[in-house]
Specification:
The complex is a heterodimer of chains A (206) and B (246). Chain A has five helices and no strands. Chain A has 206 residues and is mainly alpha-helical. Chain A starts with 12 loop residues before the first helix and ends with a helix. Chain B has one domain: Ribonuclease Z/Hydroxyacylglutathione hydrolase-like (Metallo-beta-lactamase, Chain A), CATH 3.60.15.10. In chain B, strands 1-2-3-4-5-6-7 form a seven-stranded mixed β-sheet, with helices on one face. In chain B, strands 8-9-10-11-12-13 form a six-stranded mixed β-sheet, covered by helices on one side. In chain B, a hairpin with a 2-residue loop joins strand 1 and strand 2. In chain B, helix 5 packs antiparallel against helix 6. The chains are: A mainly alpha (206), B alpha/beta (246). At the A-B interface, helix 2 and helix 3 of A face helix 1 and helix 3 of B. The structure holds fe (ii) ion (2 copies). One fe (ii) ion binds next to loops of chain B.
């Protein structure tokens, strides 16, 4: 017997948040993957600049900066992953809370009990706490993304400068220009990922 | 909402069956819950799944103050047995849950803290409810590998969990077995498939035959009373179980 997996309907708000967090996490993983690529590219660029000698000294310095950029980007993504984990925790608790609150409310509707009202009140207080925590984490995540974005702006500047430096590479000008073009491309790739993350409905809530 | 039916009463000592909910969605298996009360306290047997909590809670509340529940007896680990645990605990966080030692680290996935669980060892356990002695009687592998029935010697009632369960069709949902031969047809496929061990079944039949039982109360289907109790034990003893009809 075969069971065919199909995509189900998108879940309502809190469930949708979980899905959004999952997408954010996938995008973070993509950025980490790309930044690892940058590290290797930067290493190759350093070797190429070494071979080009004094004419590519400036290019070598920039390539080294690119390595630092890759490392900073990965550290920034590690922080983001931590915040995302916190969001998953809060949203999971809220999802379970929603279900239990629904069932307790239904019980209260069928059998009005003073004690139930108290329980529901305490639950509401707890839920408010979770909502607050999630809002805080949302803010943290947003700020961390803005910081990563600024980092990428710097990466863009590095790539542009590398293009200029490549022109002074004399006999190596062509391969250096090619490498700086690749730098530029890959920074744009990261920028696109971060733009997508910035636009996530997880932040706007719709 | 479910309905309640008092099936035994002697002063404050009562057995209340919480059964049949016309509003229950069909994709959820129908379950019977039982409340044993004595001296103003109550023990709820197999409280049921989370989704049916409102129906069970509201029915129970018509008969008994839910905050006077002292504990829950979980015959085994299935979701239809006790996935509502966290909701009951919400109401009474001090409540204990009696369950086979085998499942005592599995059921906490439904809720509860380390203080909640009282582990029942394989040979069984006596549970005292305000002076009333209830016995957790082993029924391992029928169907769960760590499984207990609950016997009330004073009331002569046995809560048999999934043993004796029947999946009743619409229109044949009486609370008590009326025509054994007709009823047992709805129990046969269930017992063949769910019960895993002929050896365990034989031992259960021998053990249970030694008890004085007026009513055998399963978690699904109808209650066996009087001569139907022994009739069921004999029928079960003869049945070959642990069979998948592939
Ligand atoms: Fe079961
Ligand atoms: Fe069951």
């Amino acid at each position: 017997m075969t069971h065919f997996l199909t995509m189900s309907e998108p879940p309502p708000q809190t469930g949708a948040d979980l899905l959004r967090i999952v997408r954010i996490n996938e995008e973070i993983k993509r950025v980490v993957g790309v930044s690892l690529k940058i590290n290797i590219m930067a290493l190759n660029a350093i070797f190429l600049a070494k071979r080009a000698g004094t004419a590519a000294r400036g290019f070598a310095v920039l390539s080294n900066e690119f390595r630092n950029f890759s490392q900073d980007l990965r550290s920034s993504m590690a922080v983001l992953t931590g915040v995302v984990y916190g969001c998953v925790n809060e949203v999971s608790v809220m999802l379970q809370d929603l279900r239990f609150t629904r069932l307790l409310q239904e019980a209260g509707r069928q059998a009005p009990q003073a004690a139930l009202a108290g329980i529901l009140e305490r639950r509401e207080e707890k839920s408010a706490g979770h909502r607050e925590n999630l809002a805080k984490l949302r803010g943290q995540l947003k700020r961390a993304f803005e910081e990563a974005f600024q980092m990428v702006e710097l990466g863009g500047v590095l790539a542009k400068s590398a293009k200029i430096e490549a022109a002074y590479g004399q006999g190596f000008a062509l391969p250096l220009a090619q490498v700086s073009g690749e730098f530029d491309q890959i920074v744009e790739e990261i920028r696109a990922s971060l733009e997508a993350l910035r636009r996530s409905a997880f932040f706007s809530g719709n | 909402m479910k309905t309640t039916k008092t099936i035994f009463q002697d002063g404050s000592h009562k057995w209340v069956a919480i059964v049949r909910d016309p509003q229950k969605p069909h994709h959820l298996i129908d379950t019977n819950e039982y409340l044993v009360t004595h001296g103003g306290r109550g023990l709820l047997l197999d409280p049921g799944g989370a989704e049916i909590f409102p129906a069970v809670f509201s029915a129970l509340a018509t008969e008994f103050d839910p905050s006077a529940l002292a504990g829950i007896f979980a015959s085994h680990q299935d979701p239809d047995i006790c996935s509502s645990l966290a909701l009951w605990l919400e109401f009474n966080p001090q409540m204990h849950c009696y369950v086979s030692w085998l499942w005592s680290s599995f059921i906490p996935h439904f809720g509860g803290t380390v203080e909640t669980f009282v582990q029942i060892p394989d040979p069984g356990l006596n549970i005292a409810l305000e002076g009333l002695l209830l016995q957790a009687v082993p029924a391992h592998y029928l169907h769960s590998s760590g499984n207990f029935n609950l016997y009330d010697k004073t009331a002569k009632l046995l809560f048999s969990g999934d043993v004796g369960a029947a999946l009743l069709p619409a229109g044949e949902e009486a609370l008590f077995v009326e025509d054994f031969d007709r009823h047992i047809r709805h129990a046969e496929a269930f017992h063949r498939r769910w019960m895993g061990s002929n050896d365990a079944k034989r031992r259960w039949c021998e053990r249970i035959s030694q008890l004085e039982i007026d009513m055998l109360c399963p978690q699904h289907g109808a209650i066996y009373q009087g001569a139907d109790v022994q009739r069921f034990i004999n029928w079960f003893d003869e049945l070959q179980v642990g069979i998948v009809g592939l």
